[in-house]
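Task: sequence design from structure.
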């Protein structure tokens, strides 16, 4: 194991937890945000359990209950939608017609309030989804940075639109305007960062929003509810809770959602999109499944390949859409790779999220260890071996990472996105085997190439550049920097998200034009001079 302690000893007693990180008393949350008010829910609640257990004096273990959140019904969700629709008011509402500089001021006010909640949110990230302290702090800070970068990007976009263009006797101004009402849903593995990469661009471009937090990492939105309420006009941001099949299904079936921002499975996205009665009027920004391969060539810096692949496969226990989900290793370097990789995996420290240097933490999804065992056992039954000592051992919500090899196409782990600490390694001889895998795959988010032969690396780049959204050379798959495109092909994504691209996803270019003559010049000039329009303006935002 990665630590001197056996798995069964990793969970602490309450008195062993530093005071700053001890769990708060369970929170019975009945508040949700609709039309600028915190509404009270008297109906059923969903219990929020931590992946962390506590050892009792008698040696038994008790799963920590963090609180509960509202199980809203369809009617409550539709009231939130009605508020967003009313606030948008066919594009005539205060928010969509507000000057860009004013909308930016509202987002900046929210950011200031959000930063006040850093400690509370970071603590909940650790307790709700088991993310270690370092990564929880990074997620919060990166989210704040993303908001700042989005503001800067919008300023640049608006500056470029602050002038008129004269083409073939037509005078015009082109600006980006909102799409309408957006439904934003984020994933449990990055319940703050990934969620806000759609939520903030949607808001700042003038859309009104219905926001449903992820299924895990749901309580951590609670400290931000008042900030949302106080920072935006009524109805602009509405926050609902509950089961998606009851709440989100009703929202989509209404036909009143104009933009669907969703990070989850392609099946879930497809099922929801089918409910919309006017699909041609629905714009989607989707981050979906991935089965990102890492390809280790025979000529390679093996130490770098191992280091990057371990981090790429097992950061946050492999619970990332950008994780390396399958490794193809040339048989010439297979033995050396597996030896170093297994040793590096078993050097990872397991423990509680707040413990220094911890890399492996409890898994938040109920039933996840059972699923991982089933996939592992399937591979072993069909000829794979667990390469690293102790791989696949589990206790409660802990699962010791397992490196599996040789893996082939008969095994579930070859095809499924395992989304957890299983690392399948496929030996190969002919590079065409790898090319065929990527080409035939239903997924096309990213891949990594590890090698130093220019001819081989160049060949693979050309083979894959039209198969995936990002190719990483001698580096793990990743999202950042946030200014780079984040997208995918096939079943992995729809639309492109980055700081710059997201602003365009949640808006549309609109042109106001007139024939260029003295009377029209004077008319447009007076509109601008007397500030009769928030669209027609030459304001320059510094």
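Answer:
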């Amino acid at each position: 194991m990665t630590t001197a302690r056996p798995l069964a000893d990793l969970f602490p007693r309450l008195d062993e937890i530093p005071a700053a990180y001890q769990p708060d008393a369970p929170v019975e949350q009945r508040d949700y945000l609709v039309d600028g008010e915190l509404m009270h829910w008297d109906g059923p609640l969903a219990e929020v359990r931590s992946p962390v257990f506590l050892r009792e004096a008698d040696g038994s273990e008790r799963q920590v209950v963090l609180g509960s959140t509202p199980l809203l019904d369809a009617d409550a969700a539709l009231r939130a939608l009605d508020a967003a629709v009313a606030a948008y008011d066919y594009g005539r509402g205060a928010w969509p017609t507000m000057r860009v500089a004013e909308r930016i001021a509202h987002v900046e006010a929210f950011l200031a309030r959000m930063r006040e909640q850093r400690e509370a949110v970071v603590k909940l990230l650790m307790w709700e989804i088991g993310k270690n302290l370092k990564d929880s702090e990074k997620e919060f800070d990166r989210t704040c940075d993303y908001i700042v970068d989005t503001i800067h990007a919008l300023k640049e976009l608006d500056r470029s639109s602050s002038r008129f263009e004269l083409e073939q006797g037509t005078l015009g101004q082109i600006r980006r305007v909102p799409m309408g009402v957006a439904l934003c849903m984020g994933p449990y593995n990055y319940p703050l960062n990934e969620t806000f990469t759609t939520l903030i661009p949607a808001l700042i471009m003038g859309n009104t929003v219905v926001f449903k937090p992820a299924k895990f990492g749901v309580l951590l939105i609670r400290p931000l509810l008042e900030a949302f309420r106080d920072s935006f006009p009524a109805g602009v941001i509405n926050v609902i809770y509950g089961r998606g099949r009851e709440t989100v299904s009703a929202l989509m079936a209404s036909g009143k959602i104009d933009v669907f921002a969703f990070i989850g499975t392609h099946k879930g996205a497809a099922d929801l999109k089918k409910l919309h009665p006017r699909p041609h009027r629905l714009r989607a920004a989707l981050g979906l499944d991935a089965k990102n391969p890492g390809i280790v060539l025979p000529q390679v810096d093996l130490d770098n390949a191992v280091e990057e692949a371990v981090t790429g496969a097992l950061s946050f226990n492999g619970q990332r859409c950008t994780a390396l989900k399958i490794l193809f290793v040339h048989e010439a370097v297979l033995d050396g790779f597996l030896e170093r990789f297994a040793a590096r995996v078993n050097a990872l420290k397991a423990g509680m999220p707040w413990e220094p240097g911890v890399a492996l933490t409890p898994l938040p999804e109920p039933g996840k260890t059972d699923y991982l065992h089933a996939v592992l056992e399937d591979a072993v039954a069909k000829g794979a071996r667990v390469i690293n000592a102790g791989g696949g051992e589990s206790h409660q919500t802990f699962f010791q990472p397992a490196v599996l090899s040789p893996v082939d196409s008969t095994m579930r782990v070859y095809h499924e996105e395992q989304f957890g600490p299983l690392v399948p390694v496929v030996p190969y001889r002919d590079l065409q085997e790898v090319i065929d895998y990527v080409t035939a795959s239903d997924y096309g988010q990213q891949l990594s190439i590890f090698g130093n032969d220019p001819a081989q690396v160049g060949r693979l780049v050309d083979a894959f550049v039209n198969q995936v959204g990002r190719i990483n050379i001698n580096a793990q798959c990743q999202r950042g920097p946030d200014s780079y495109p984040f997208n995918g092909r096939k079943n992995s994504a729809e639309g492109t998200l980055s700081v710059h691209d997201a602003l365009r996803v949640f808006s549309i270019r609109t042109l106001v034009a007139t024939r260029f003559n003295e009377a029209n010049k004077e008319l447009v000039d007076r509109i601008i001079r007397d500030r009769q329009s928030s669209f027609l303006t030459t304001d320059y935002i510094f």
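The mean pLDDT is 96.
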